[in-house]
User: Which sequence fits this backbone?
């Protein structure tokens, strides 16, 4: 197709398998690199976690962190000189959510009332055990800037917590393993739309966006792209999803991601194939 393809991808359970490996996705990753297609992680992970994964994958493209709470555009990427957001190190950062200090303050004051324990309350060892991470990876997961990850101890009081959070301009979203507290109006879909609009002012058009995810927190991402792929959950079932034209991958993690991406690229490059 003429124009530019952008691929937005969730990480855990999507590009990465349940052991946090991208094994099985190598063929599609190589095809993306050959074509110069931006591969934009859109994850619940922190900046520190995504930066580490980008090094492993050899990526230099923009990325979205903490369930859409912020977009990171590397300085000078494809000659783009954006003035949105604020500068932070080697990035232009567009923040959509609240800052983690405000969120932690809320949980420190009210979390115990609702049976909540957050990453900020836990040691790296506890996070590592619960999330299946190494201690080093758990430390990176604790470096949250725009959200907080938490779980309920015992039954908890999720409905009451959600109501109290809403009064403070905060929302709860559910990831694959944990709950996330984030600023109102910040989700993966909002971040994808914001970043696509920015990139669309600079990259050759038209743009065609592809999105891949597996969980409830990925549904806004899948609703914000032109071609959406839903991968199965750990038990083999699919998250209920009403996105028109949604495609379902046959397997979870890198292998399912690989098959879905290669099929979409072949379809888009076929003479007379679909356009944005």
Assistant:
């Amino acid at each position: 197709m003429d124009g530019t393809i952008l691929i937005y991808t969730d990480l855990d359970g999507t590009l990465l398998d349940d052991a946090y490996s991208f094994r099985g996705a190598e063929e599609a990753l190589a095809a993306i690199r050959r074509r110069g297609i931006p591969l934009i992680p859109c994850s619940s992970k922190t900046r520190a976690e995504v930066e580490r994964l980008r090094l492993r994958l050899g990526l230099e493209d923009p990325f979205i962190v903490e369930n859409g709470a912020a977009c990171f555009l590397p300085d000078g990427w494809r000659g783009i000189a954006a003035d949105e957001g604020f500068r932070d190190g080697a990035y232009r950062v567009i923040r959509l959510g609240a800052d983690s200090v405000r969120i932690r303050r809320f949980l420190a004051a009210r979390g115990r009332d609702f049976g909540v324990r957050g990453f900020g309350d836990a040691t790296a060892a506890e996070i590592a055990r619960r999330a299946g991470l190494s201690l080093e990876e758990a430390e990176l997961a604790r470096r949250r800037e725009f959200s907080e990850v938490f779980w309920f101890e015992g039954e908890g009081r999720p409905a009451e917590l959600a109501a109290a959070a809403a009064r403070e301009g905060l929302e709860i979203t559910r990831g694959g393993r944990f709950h996330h507290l984030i600023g109102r109006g910040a989700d993966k879909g909002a971040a994808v739309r914001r970043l696509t609009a920015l990139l669309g002012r600079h990259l050759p058009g038209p743009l065609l966006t592809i999105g891949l995810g597996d969980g409830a927190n990925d549904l806004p991402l899948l609703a914000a792209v032109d071609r959406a792929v839903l991968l199965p959950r750990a038990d083999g079932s699919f998250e209920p999803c009403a996105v028109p034209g949604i495609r379902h991958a046959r397997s979870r993690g890198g292998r399912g991601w690989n098959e879905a991406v290669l099929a979409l690229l072949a379809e888009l490059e076929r003479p007379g194939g679909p356009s944005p």
